[in-house]
Amino acid sequence: ALADVPLEISGLSKRYHGAADRYAVRELSFRVERGQVLGLLGPNGAGKTTTMRMMMGLIRPDAGSIRVFGHAIRPGAPVLSRVGAFVEGAGFLPHLTGRANLELYWRATGRPAADAHVEEALEIAGLGEALERAVRTYSQGMRQRLAIAQAMLGLPDLLILDEPTNGLDPPQIREMRDVVRRYAAAGRTVLVSSHLLSEVEQSCTHLVVMDKGRLVAAGPVGEIAGGGQALFVGAPGM
Ligand code: ATP
Q1: In angstroms, what is the span from residue 156 Cα to ligand 1's centroid?
Q2: What spacing in Å lies between the alpha carbon of 17 and ligand 1's midpoint?
Q3: pLDDT number for residue 89
Q4: Which of 229, 124, 142 lies closest to 185, judged by CA?
Q5: How far apart are the C-alpha atoms of 136 and 134, rounded to whole Å?
Q6: Spatial distance between the Cα atoms of 232 and 210, rounded to a whole number of angstroms
Q7: Can you state the angle between helices 170-185 and 116-125, rounded to 10 degrees?
Q8: Which UniProt keywords apply (predicted)?
Q9: What is the maximal distance between C-alpha atoms in the chain?
Q10: DSSP state, 134?
């Protein structure tokens, strides 16, 4: 049934005003099945962020549809509690601890203060003792992890992460990969974007590759990444 499909996008298109004829996303269709860890891969400007922001109901597509567990997503519609999303630049109160910030956020979303799911999400995020420190003492990587933890509170069935490794150094990138793996281990569904194949090939089960707003490849990670063909000619590190 449609209600069992975490995410299905169909014919999605978006053009920004003033960007002439250029589509940021053009006739994009794909589906994420339950339990998949799907990497949305593409070079800078491919349209990953635009796609994810449409999925989160932050911007309105020009055409096409997005269904999350069977519900049509559109700006202004209530965000489903089954979905958690990470976008860059989440704001935290610097003088409060990481834990206090997350509790504040959790209560602001109208959920009960004590929730076993919250503790499990914090466990998965692996912030450890840092949770009890003021956010102003956090490195960029720690802030990013806290923002990921925030998206994971309540253990949503679908977790959407837009470039969670942006600005992180290699050890932090490896940690982020482990966080995604731990989250998905219980059969939860994750959609994660990146511009580096090396970042997603080990943590993802499936890939959707975008370039210039269009889907250029999709399938199980072994078929897409292991084919030996260059996905993006001239893009180092791919
Ligand atoms: P990145 O990895 O750099 O974030 P991306 O794959 O996420 O890239 P998008 O950010 O979705 O790609 O951008 C797709 C295209 O849309 C790019 O050409 C970009 O310049 C353009 N674009 C994105 N946001 C806007 C905006 N607010 N106004 C005009 N054009 C935009």
Answers
A1: 27
A2: 12
A3: 67
A4: 124
A5: 5
A6: 10
A7: 140
A8: ATP-binding, Hydrolase, Nucleotide-binding, Signal, Transport
A9: 50
A10: B
Q: Which two tokens stand for residue 80?
A: 């489903």
Q: Which is the closest atom of ligand 1 to the Cα of 163? A: 2
β-strand pairing of 189-194 with 158-161: parallel
Distance 97 CA to ligand 1 centre (A): 33
Average pLDDT, the chain: 87
The DSSP 8-state label assigned to residue 30 in this structure reads: E
DSSP string, 120-131: HHHHHHT-GGGG
Q: Which of 28, 50, 196 to mutate to test the pocket of ligand 1 (most atoms within 8 A of CB)?
A: 50
Q: Give ligand 1 pocket residues (Cβ under 6 A).
A: 16, 19, 24, 42, 44-50, 195
- CA–CA distance, 237 with 199 (Å, rounded to integer): 10
Cα distance from N-terminal residue to C-terminal residue, the chain = 36
Q: What is the DSSP letter of 97?
A: B
Question: With DSSP H G I counted as helix, E B as strand and the rest as coil, what are the percentages for the chain, rounded to 5?
Answer: 35, 25, 40
- For 177-225, how does the pLDDT look when each residue is reduced to its tens digit (9 = 90+)? 899 999 999 899 999 999 888 888 888 999 999 999 999 999 999 888 7
Ligand 1: centre distance to CA 118 (Å): 33
ipTM over 0.85: yes
Dig out the tokens for 91 from the structure: 């704001």
Q: What single letter denotes the amino acid at residue 53?
A: R
Amino acid at 133: R
User: Where does the chain have alpha helices with state H?
Assistant: 48-55, 98-108, 116-125, 140-152, 170-185, 197-200, 221-225
7 contacts 191 by C-beta, under 8 angstroms: yes
Residue in the structure block whose two tokens are 């975008």 = 210
